[in-house]
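Progress note, sequence design subtask.
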């Protein structure tokens, strides 16, 4: 299926290559494709034209979201839910043509009405295209996704910055990945907050970052603080290191650095196990190794955030008591930063530790396993 843009002069940066799914052409801002930032809702209503069918179908979008289609002069509107999934289609007079309900990973659960199905259904407003191929039911630009298995059909081009095959860290009712490279949010329990913190003029890089990760952070996620594992293959040998990227400075900087240091400590064992697995092709397929790490990342997200926020909370609380012991001091930027991060960490500890405990991984326990041996025994994600 080939699609092309029909764009107004106000949108000169939109390119055919982006629509065709060239991953390198897609940039992200806060988890969304940057194309959403290029399109002005008032100045740029555009249409996708299907070049492979006899009839022309224009898919109308505003501010990056598909809102309906027109085929042979017949207009059909889309009604969507919070994830961008089409829950109903409407005729030109507002009459409901059909309604749709989905299972968490996109399989159609129920349909009412006799209206024709649009090509964009589950997460369709953001461009997830129904592909009608078994185990590759949706096309999301960079990759194809199976709504049956809940997994991508190929490795994420940004791996290990993103999960290799898993979809949105196992939380498809809250997050989306409309272009097949990066989910909208990365944690399952951190509270949402926006704050103008002191950002370092040059973010700290601790150990070597994957090139694709460094590019993503530099250009598209300013202010991000992340820790992960970087496997690199030279010849036939894999080497792995745990890295961090820290951007918060000022009075809150030490607490954030301690938070990421705790993450590095938690990552060390599993990063080493990933390399040992990758370097043992006689016993493990690469996909087994990646799946073990990915399962640990997904199942252990709340557990690791609980432990890391506990460390940073202690530092923020101690610093606030020491530095902000008068009304005048509490009005300074330093104390405002410490107060914000202390409150944020306190909420995160409460929520993340609660989620981790419900998942069977209490804060004082060993956490989930990342041992590839357990894949064949069906125990992936069990405790160490």
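Output:
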């Amino acid at each position: 299926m080939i699609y092309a843009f029909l764009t107004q002069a106000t949108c000169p940066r939109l390119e055919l290559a982006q629509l065709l799914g060239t991953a390198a052409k897609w940039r992200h801002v806060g988890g969304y494709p940057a194309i959403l930032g290029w399109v002005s809702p008032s100045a740029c209503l555009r249409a996708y034209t299907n070049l492979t069918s006899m009839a022309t179908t224009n898919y109308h979008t505003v501010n990056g979201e598909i809102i309906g289609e027109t085929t042979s002069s017949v207009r059909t509107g889309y009604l969507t839910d919070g994830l961008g999934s089409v829950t109903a289609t409407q005729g030109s007079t507002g009459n409901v043509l059909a309604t749709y309900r989905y299972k968490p990973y996109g399989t159609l659960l129920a349909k009412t009405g006799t209206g024709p199905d649009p090509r964009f259904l589950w997460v369709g407003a953001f461009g997830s295209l129904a592909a009608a191929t078994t185990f590759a039911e949706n096309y999301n630009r960079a990759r194809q996704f199976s709504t049956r298995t809940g997994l991508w059909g190929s490795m994420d081009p940004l791996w290990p910055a993103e999960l290799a095959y898993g979809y949105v860290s196992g939380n498809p009712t809250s997050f989306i990945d409309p272009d097949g490279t990066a989910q909208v949010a990365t944690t399952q329990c951190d509270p949402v907050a926006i704050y103008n913190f002191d950002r370092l003029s040059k973010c700290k890089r601790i150990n070597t970052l994957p090139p694709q990760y460094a590019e993503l952070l530099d250009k598209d996620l300013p202010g991000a603080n992340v820790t992960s594992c970087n496997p690199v293959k030279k010849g036939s040998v894999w080497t792995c290191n745990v890295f961090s990227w820290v951007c918060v400075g000022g009075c809150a900087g030490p607490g954030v650095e301690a938070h990421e240091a705790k993450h590095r400590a938690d990552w060390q064992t599993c990063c080493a196990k990933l390399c040992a697995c990758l370097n043992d092709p006689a016993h493990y397929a690469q996909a087994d190794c990646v799946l073990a790490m990915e399962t640990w990342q997904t199942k252990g997200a709340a557990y690791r955030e609980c432990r890391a926020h506990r460390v940073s909370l202690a530092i923020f609380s101690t610093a606030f008591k020491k530095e902000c012991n008068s009304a005048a001091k509490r009005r300074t930027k330093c104390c405002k930063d410490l107060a914000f991060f202390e409150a944020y960490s306190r909420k995160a500890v409460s929520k993340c530790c609660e989620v981790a405990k419900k998942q069977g991984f209490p804060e004082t326990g060993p956490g989930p396993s990342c041992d590839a041996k357990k894949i064949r025994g069906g125990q992936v994600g069990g405790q160490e």
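The longest helix spans residues 253-278. Work on this subtask will continue into the next period as scheduled.
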